[in-house]
Each structure stands twice: as C-alpha cells, then as structure tokens.
Amino acid sequence: MGQGGGRLAHGEMSRKGNELAMDSAAERLGEIKARIKTSAEGQGRTASDVTLIAVSKTFDADAIRPVIAAGQRHFGENRVQEAQGKWPSLQAETPEIVLHLIGPLQSNKAKEAVALFDAIHSIDREKIARTVAGEMERQGRRLTLFVQVNTGEEPQKAGVMPKDAVAFVAMCRDELGLEISGLMCIPPVDEEAAVHFAFLAKLAKEAGVSGLSMGMSDDFETAVEFGATHVRVGSAIFGGRG
Ligand SMILES: *Cc1c(COP(=O)(O)O)cnc(C)c1O
What we know:
By secondary structure, this protein is α/β, with parallel strands linked by helices. The protein has helices spanning 3-19, 25-42, 61-69, 80-93, 110-116, 126-139, 162-174, 193-207, 220-225, 235-238; strands at residues 51-55, 74-77, 98-101, 119-123, 144-148, 180-184, 211-213, 230-233. The structure holds pyridoxal-5'-phosphate.
C-alpha cells in the first residue's frame, strides 16, 4: 500500500463525517462496522478479528446508551475520573460492557483504573507497569494490557520509544509477570498513518505479541489493512467533540 491510499481514505472519511452529520450514532456505528468488515475481508481476515472500541470520551451516558442498545460492547475513555462518573451505572445496566482506558494513566489513579477498566492501552513506563501489576494482584483482576509506543518519537506524546519497546515488553513479562497483549500507537497528526501502523506491526512481531491497537476515525481502515486487532473510533460514531 502506497501513501496515496492512506490519503484517500482520510479524505473519504472527512466527507462521510459531514454527510452523516444528521444520522444517529447508532447508524454511524453500523456504517463503521461495515467498513471494518470490508477492510478485514480485503486482507483475508474477518470482522471478528477486529475489535471496534467506540471512544465515548466527552459524551455522557445519554449519548452512549443508544450505541449500547445498537449492540456495541467495547468502549474507550481517556480519563479515569470522567469514566468513573458515567460507566458504573452503564456497566450495571449492561454487564457485558468491556471498558478500555486509552489515555495516559498516572500511578495515583491506578487503583481506580484497575477497578473500573477491563483493558489499559497506555502502559508506557516501568513505574505504571509495576503499579498496575500490584493492583491487579491486590484486586484479583486480570486486565488486557497494551504497551503504548511513541512511534513518531514526539516529545509531547506518551509511549515508550520504539528502540525500547521490545525490551520493555520483555521486562513486563519476565520481571513483573504481566501478560502484554499487544502494542498501541497514536501516529503524529501530520504524518502518513500507514507508515506508523506498519512500524508498530513490525515491533509487535519482534516483541512476540499479537495485539495491535491502532487506527482512529480518520484512518481505521488503513489500520485494519496493516493488521489492527483493535481500532479506537470516536468522532466518526459519536460526532465531533466541539
Ligand atoms: C480520542 C481518541 C481516539 C478517538 O479519536 P477519533 O478521532 O475521535 O476517532 C482514539 N485513541 C485515543 C488514544 C484517543 O484519545
């Protein structure tokens, strides 16, 4: 896949976003799922190989309920405190909900995060890995964990540096006894996402993990083409965050 493919997908998504502005979140969800299926099948995979995480950050319980009613079960939030305000009641209504923390985690929030979330995509330093391991032990909970990699080596962005990713995964596994499911990245906004997705897939292979959490509203189809197992889609389902 060349660079042109990624750009085209990006433009199409933006146009679709505008055209569908009047549709409901549940209808947009259906459309996203259909597009994931097409992309997955184009690679000889199936829709069930790709977990769609509906990113509901900034949206309240009333906005989220119709998406749950439409059958969506995996949701993503980027702040522990915000998630604590709305998810316990939604989880009580629908126990099969799987909640993913996709934003940075501070050690002082690890206890709450391990209690509330089923997956954390932002393990990116030894201290947080150690704290999460301890909390899982204490609470008797087993979360799905992804190591975030700063593939663009951006100073302001979280994530381990690419050169450290393989050793970091090994440290989590061998020293902390943590099972790491995969790697996660957020490509730089001004760069071709496909290059970063391919890079993350290569690092995951080297690290011996199979999960790839990559792709957002503008580039989830590209991510699926490069092997994403988890795509994190917010605005294309819920609308703009203003
Ligand atoms: C907000 C967010 C997303 C979803 O972004 P959209 O462009 O709205 O799809 C995905 N991943 C992370 C880490 C995010 O913070």
